[in-house]
Structure formats: structure tokens, C-alpha cells
Amino acid sequence: EDPKKLAEFQAKIDAEIKIEPKDWMPEGYRQNLIRQISQHAHSEVIGMQPEGNWVSRAPSLRSKKILMAKIQDEGGHGLYLYCAAETLGVSRDQYLQWLHEGKAKYASVFNYPSPTWADMGAIGWLVDGAAIVNQVSLQRTSYGPYSRAMVRICMEESFHQRQGYEIMDRMMNGNEAQRKMAQDSLDRWWWPSLMMFGPHDSDSAHSSQSMKWKIKRESNDDLRQQFIDKTVPQAELIGLKIPDPNLKFNEETGHYETSDIDWDEFWNVIKGNGPCNKKRLDHHKKAHNDGAWVREAAAAYGLKQKNKLQT
Ligand code: 3HC
Fold first, then answer.
1. Which atom of ligand 1 is nearest to the CA of 36?
2. Could you confirm whether the keyword Cell membrane appears in this record (predicted)?
3. How far, in whole angstroms, is CA 292 from its chain's centroid?
4. d(Cα 261, Cα 272) in Å, to the nearest integer?
5. Which residues are paired to 255 by β-bridges?
6. Residue nearest to ligand 1 atom 31, measured at CA
7. Looking at CB atoms within 10 Å, which of 37, 65, 137, 254 has the fewest?
8. Candidates 35, 37, 40: which one to mutate for ligand 1, based on the most atoms within 8 Å of Cβ?
9. Residue closest by Cα to atom 39 of ligand 1
10. DSSP classification of residue 16
């Protein structure tokens, strides 16, 4: 690639000027965004499944309406993100094909099951809580369409985090069985939530280039620490115990210290061997195939409208 163009590109990044779809960009920058944004979009959409499991069994009409609205938001986030990813010159069909072929990843956390109602609380509170920390940082990403999608998504995500925390709070104010159910759910979702931020910075293949290009603004470990510092006091406030015997607050640094993550589990889930990987992907493929007639009908209608305008 032309060194002059590369230098001009980096100067724009350094000056905090957003890169827009028609601007010149290095091929590596484009490819990195194609990878990250599409994986982010897939995560939003696959993430609807663990919660979809509870729509028909929500304990009240109020909780059912809130859960449905939340899941619908996730679908919407996926759509904004697919649109942002399409500006990089790859079609949505192609992105979905990569997902179905196992070539594109999605967040590992969605490969865990959601067997109890408390999981609706833990997912909103922890998984969306972790997503917010990451996405607030990505509002300042250097690629314009991605950054703008993040602004809207973050506003909705904060409602999701609160609805999850509210469920946990109500359960902790309930009877012994409900408190146990909430604690069990935290025990199962705590570590997968910490894994959402990706491997340690030292093991993160893409981080250094992504930081240079300001695709990522903060490192995996820094964002994870922010999430831990924010979430531990929230757990304590409602009487939940973080499942980590080594958790302690370091007065000098002002941060919580934790045990290390089980990285074998993390890579194993990413490789496709988590408890629900196959189920999630099979479900997505089936829903996609079942929806083929909707896409065909929409395309036929679009063509009809276009012909009408021309006559
Ligand atoms: N789950 C699955 N794969 C992960 C992962 C995770 N938690 N963390 C890292 N990986 C993968 C990376 O994608 C990469 O694989 P690849 O080269 O095949 O693409 C590999 O592990 C190495 O990791 P890196 O740290 O080098 O990768 P990144 O620099 O891309 O950092 C990231 C990983 C922090 C997840 C970054 O991609 C990112 O910030 N992505 C945007 C945020 C996102 O995707 N969030 C999804 C979850 S939240 C959500 O969408 C739903 C919410 O509304 C509930």
C-alpha cells in the first residue's frame, strides 16, 4: 500500500477524524472491521436465544413485556451492526454464510444455558453490563458507522442492565429458594461474563493494531477491570456473593483483584465445544431457513414498488 496514503490515514486517526465508508482505508483496517463488527452483530442476534427461552414462562405479564422488549432491542442492535458492516463492501448474506459455516465467531457467553428465571436477571445485569462497558468505549471507535451505531445501542443497553439488576434485586428480597436461585445464577454467569472481554492483552492477537487504528480504544484487561470494579459493589448491595474466594479490594490501586480466568474453558467454548454451541447455531440456521419466504416476499414487494414508480 502507498506509504503516503498510509501516513495520511494514520494522521486522520491520530487527529480523531472519523473514517467514513467511501474514504480510503488500508485493507487490513477494512478486514479487521469486517471481522469485529460482523462478530458483534452475530453476538447480538445469537444473544436473543438464551432469553427467548423464557418468554413463554415469564412469571408475570409485566416481566414478560419487559423481556420481550429487551430481546427485540437485541435484534435491532444486530440490524444496525449488520448495516454498519455492510458499508465495508460485504453483503449480509455473506456475513450469515460465514456464521453458519463456523468461520465467524460470536460472543462465547451465549453458549451457556439459561435454565432458571434468575438467569434473565443475571444476563441483563452481567452480560449487558459487560457489553455496556465495552460499547461505551467503542462509541469513540474510529470508523464512523460503527461509532454511530454504538451511541444508540448504549442507550438501550443501560435499560437492559437495569432490568436485569431489578430481577436480581427482587429475587434477593424474596424467599430462601428465590435467593438461592439468584445466587446460583450469579455463580454460573460471573466467569463467562468476565470472559466476554476477550483474552489477556498479552494474548490478544488483534489488540495492538486495533489500538493503533483506534478501532479499539481501551484494552481487554482494562475494560474487564472497569466492569469488575463497577459490578462487585452492586452484588454486595443486594446480598449476593461473587463466586471467587480470592476476590479482594486493593486499597492502594483502588481496584478489585480476582482469581485468574479459566482460559482453557474460554478457548474451548470459542472452538465450538461449549454447552450450547451446536444448539445455538442449529437454531439460527433453522430460523434463517424458515424465514426464506419472508425475504422472498419482501424482495418481490420491493420490485413491484420499483416498477410502479417507473411506470
Ligand atoms: N467470545 C468469542 N470470541 C472472542 C471473545 C469472546 N468473548 N473474545 C475474543 N474472541 C476472539 C476474537 O474474536 C479473536 O478471534 P478471530 O481472530 O477469529 O476473530 C480471538 O478471540 C482473539 O481475541 P482478540 O482479543 O485478539 O480479539 P479482538 O481484538 O477482536 O477483541 C473483543 C475481542 C473485545 C470481543 C472485540 O472484538 C470487541 O470489542 N468486539 C465488540 C464487542 C462485542 O462483540 N460484543 C459482543 C457481546 S455483547 C452483545 O453483543 C450482546 C449484548 O447486547 C448483550
1. 37
2. no
3. 26
4. 18
5. 250
6. 198
7. 254
8. 40
9. 134
10. T
Q: Which regions in the chain score pLDDT beneath 50?
A: none
Question: How remote is the CA of residue 6 from the centroid of ligand 1, in Å?
Answer: 26
Pick the residue whose CA is nearest to atom 49 on ligand 1.
44
Residue 262 φ then ψ, to 5°: -80, 95
| Cell numbers given for 182 | 439468584
Query: Quick one: CA dihedral 48, 50, 55, 56, positive or negative?
Result: positive
Distance CA 242, CA 224 (A): 15
The pLDDT value recorded for residue 309 is: 87
Question: Does ligand 1 come within 6 angstroms of the Cβ of 44?
Answer: yes
* Backbone torsions φ then ψ of 180, nearest 5 degrees: -65, -40
C-alpha cell at 226: 472497569
- Alpha helices (H) along 87-175: 92-100, 118-122, 129-138, 144-172
Judge if the beta carbon of residue 199 lies within 6 A of ligand 1.
yes
**Prediction ipTM score:** 0.97
Chain-centre distance of CA 247, in angstroms?
25
The DSSP secondary structure of 205-262, one letter per residue, reads TTHHHHHHTTSSSS-HHHHHHHHHHHHHHHHHHTT---S-TT-EEETTTTEEE-PPP-
